[in-house]
Amino acid sequence: MFCPQCGFNNDQQSRHCSQCGAALQPPAAIQPPVPQYPAPPPQYPAPGAQPYYAPPPFQPGVPVILPPVPNYMTQAVLVTLFCCLPLGIVGIIRAGDVNKRLAANDYAGALAASKSARSILWWGFGSGLVIGIIYALVQFANVANH
Ligand SMILES: [Zn+2]
């Protein structure tokens, strides 16, 4: 067998290395026996314990996804250009307010400003429509008179 100290190949039966004198041990005694532990018992949930499919507890701080708030900016510009300039400008101011409140995380305020902008723009659209019809009637009357 080989000496663990110097690596000299000694006779199988010798107890000491003939090269360096180190004690030789039979191979079975070199490795300490590995203690065998019994396998751990399988883990079952204790009776009455919370089942695995229980929903996770409510966590504050998880962001709630809210539906988007329309700001009616496009409609406000269209009303300003084609229907009613003062109401359209008020609509543009309200539409900008929606964006400002959304940026400030004021969802309720943004929703209120959005509704306000929508009603103002409907008034602007309606008045523009009425004025346009009256204007068209006047033009028609003028043409008919001449
Ligand atoms: Zn040796």
Structure description:
With 146 residues, this protein is an all-alpha fold. Among the domains are: 1-29; 73-145, no CATH class. It contains 4 helices and no strands. Helix 2 packs antiparallel against helix 3 and helix 2 runs parallel beside helix 4 (107-145). The radius of gyration is 45 Å and the shape is rod-shaped. The termini are far apart. The mean pLDDT is 83. Bound molecules: zinc ion (ZN). Zinc ion is lined by residues 3, 5-6, 8, 17, 19-20, 22.
List its salient traits.
single chain, rod-shaped, 146 residues, binds zinc ion, mainly alpha, 49% helix
List SSEs in N-to-C order.
HHHH
Strand content: under 5%
| Distinct ligands, ions and cofactors found in the model | zinc ion
Q: Based on helices, strands and strand pairing, what is the structural class?
A: mainly alpha
- The rounded Rg comes to 45 Å
Oligomer: single chain
Low-confidence stretches: none
Q: Profile the largest sheet.
A: none
**Range of helix content:** 40-55%
**What is the molecular shape?**
rod-shaped
Q: Helix count?
A: 4
**Separation of the first and last Cα atoms:** 132 Å
| Number of beta strands | 0
Short précis:
With 146 residues, the protein is mainly α. The chain has 4 helices and no strands. Among the domains are: 1-29; 73-145, no CATH class.
Q: Strands, helices and their partners?
A:
Elements: H1 27-30, H2 73-82, H3 85-103, H4 107-145
The structure holds zinc ion.
